[in-house]
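Extended Data, panel c. Modelled sequence:
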Amino acid sequence: MLPSANRALGYQSPNDRPVFATIGLRNQGWAITQKTFGFADFAALADVDSTVLGTYVEKTEQKQGKKPDACKDYREILDRKDVDAVMIATPDHWHTKIAVEAMVAGKDVYCEKPLTLTIDEGKLIEKVVKETGRVFQVGTMQRTECGRYFLQAIALVKHGRIGTVNKVTCGIGGMPASPVIPVAPVPEGLDWEFWLGPAPKVPYRALPEMREGYGGGVPLYSNAHYSFRNWHEYSGGKLTDWGAHHVDIACWAIGADGTGPGKVTPLEYTLACEYKDGHPVVHDRYNVATEFTIRASMPNNVEMIIASQGDNGILFEGTEGRFFVNRSRISGKPVEDLKDNPLPEGSLEEVYSGKISENHSANFIESMKSRKQPISDVWSHNRMLEICHLANIAMRLGRELNWDPAKREIVGDPEANSFLARESRKDYEIQM
């Protein structure tokens, strides 16, 4: 049994603001921190890149009027008794280690999606949440935000506005392949050894061309900042990036957020490099799938398609109609029919299981006060993310996988089951 939490609520009065810290600050780390300034005070920030850390310490001081402490090592934050919760936005391969150690240290956790690098990591996080009693929010903010389009989509399905659902298609986009990426000097300020952490020891790689737009200011092609999603060592490509959003909503809508598929079939796919026995044979270029069409056989004979082609969003199809939803719109005849036949009053609140929060951080903090799990809990997240992980395993091995959702293992395929977990590099094992 894990030790019990060493702090209770961390704050006793509704007028008290909880104390937070963010671990991993570039891009999404700063996005979720900014969302939370209205509800919490940030005592510390951590990042393995000193340039990034310095930038966001200064920005945080400007936002809240008080300078947070700066840490390279997240363990300094976990040792503090004044921090009630941590927000984790590191690359995916660090999520589980930091989240588990934070819960054992008595912190509530908000962790960016995808929550895990492997299926077995998800099982471990569930176990630790249960044993420590910590509140844990996953950053699948489509469950709360985005104009409530996704909540409306779920309500339409649950109120039978398209009849019996028989197919749902998640368009999540593809990943680009890369040229050969040479070994390069580590950028000034970046602790590359600590950035790798639990992942295998490899040299830093980058090309000189810089990325622009979202995630800009770093090399367009590298094995680190932003581009980490293109490497199975650190992430799972678009399947666990956008898939973690749209597959989540699809499973919630069809009532499969507590179970899983019967089988996962890679219909068409292209990997960014050559593979042998499920592993890339080269290490100087991206290795995730660039294009794909995956079929997951879901309960109640629902066919789920996850595709790199088509509009980004979710198409629900049933015996009596179809509609499409993404972050900017919800459209189709069932939506148009709402003008004359609206959903019953309280339908969205019914989906949300109560009052709808104004943003994902607000829901997390409300849950910290009530000590109930938030709208994006680890159990439903892991169930849908298993589909995405299985899709990647199926493509890496080049075959259909039969899945036992009760045992949470691949049926009759020891080689495929070996991909459900990964060994951490020495000195970076999870400390419990």
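The chain has a mean pLDDT of 95. This feature is highlighted in the accompanying rendering.
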